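Good day; I would like, with your permission, to put a structural problem before you. A protein sequence and the structure tokens that stand for its backbone fold form the material at issue. I would ask you to consider whether the tokens describe a fold that such a sequence might reasonably adopt. I set the record out below, with my sincere thanks for your time.
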Amino acid sequence: MNQPACDFDRFKKIHLMGIGGAGMSGLALLLRQMGFDVSGCDVAHSCYIDKLNTAGIQFRIGHSREHIEEFHPDALVCSSAIPSGNAEILFAMKNGVPVFKRAEVLSWIFNRRIGIGISGTHGKTTTSSMVGCVFESVGLEPTVAIGGELCDIGGNAKLGRGQHMIAELDESDGSFELFKSHVAVVTNADWDHVDYYPSLHSVLSAYERFLDNRAKGGKAIVCGEDKGLTALLEKGIKGEVITYGWGSSWDWGAHEVVHKPGGGINFKVLHRGREIGPVTLQVSGDHNVLNALAACVVASCFFIPFEKTAEALQTFRGAKRRMQHMGKISNIDVFDDYGHHPKEVAATLTALRKMFPGRRLMTVFQPHRFTRTAAMYREFADVLTLADEIFLMPIYPADEMPIEGIDSNLIGDLMNQKGLRNFRLCSGSDEVVAQVCEFIKDGDVITTIGAGDVFTVGEKVIQQLQKTGLPTNAVALET
């Protein structure tokens, strides 16, 4: 998969493998809006497929050489999750169809525009979404490509008529190094994607290369509060660097942060120690204060007045599966979050504690990937104690094969060793729904957390409670 992406505009018909994923479906929509004839396939139907069908993109279930024979594409684009030895890929190559990775094609689109590349182990979807909303609000009509659905644009990608492109850049396979950003944002840098990065040092080296690859005269926007990024700042980042974080220690800072009961935040923004104005958010959590602050910095780089930025951020409703409010039954609130790293889980639970002080927090957690669970099960066991009641689901494998001895029991066993009894191991979503509906009490807050299909649990709990109502004798969990 080493064809030159700069030749991509010579193609007309494009076939995408793995088109049902957030990133690939967004790319498919962009290509379709650019005038390409697009088709795609995936192993299963996903929530993104209906939007693709509406856009005139043909979809097939599974991966097969028959797709190449049916659609006769000029180029094949593959998700990084699909092995290079896949039969459909091999058949395409054998028949002279060039094969590209998603990032090669997306970077071809990005590098021909004024690119704003937003990266980081956590927070990049929300930060990208916030920046996109700010640019939209002032009429810049940017092209947007993010890894989740943005409520405000009703999707995960949009081809704009303006010069700017705002893209969430995924570090999971190193492909974000292909992007030449005019403004490069790094929200944080933690050890994750352990199947690709052997250590935190290798992660930091990748971010350093990403920042070094900025377009000529490009700016780097870096969160100074992150320990990993502090190491890069101390080492020295080439070119113009703008920092942000808490208080007046950085170029841009947030202070006087007030978390509002039930959701939302107020805070004031400092620029080089001088207060420039307040920001009000509908979304919650300290992490979203930092995400919004990064959006303020990006907007300032393009001379968008702070008042306009604050107005746009106040209307921002969030990205789907990022502390998304799924519904309310009686006095029970149900949330869903995509968090799949210990720090993300901790941020979500901490935010919900501040939103709903005094209310019982019930959490359904689905670990994501065997490799991540093997590396981080101790940290997961620690952060889950922020919840009052915990329901552990089996590991969602994504594209990984099982690893002997690695399952959710690793987390549960550690909790047992610590004397914790407020958790329950469940065999699957049906058992989780039954258990939650049995133990739920009026006033509880339920959150489902994980990057797999755990969001369906919240939907089913809401449906079940609508049918049956609350149990009359709910009690605390005992294992």
Remarks:
- The two ends are 50 Å apart (CA to CA).
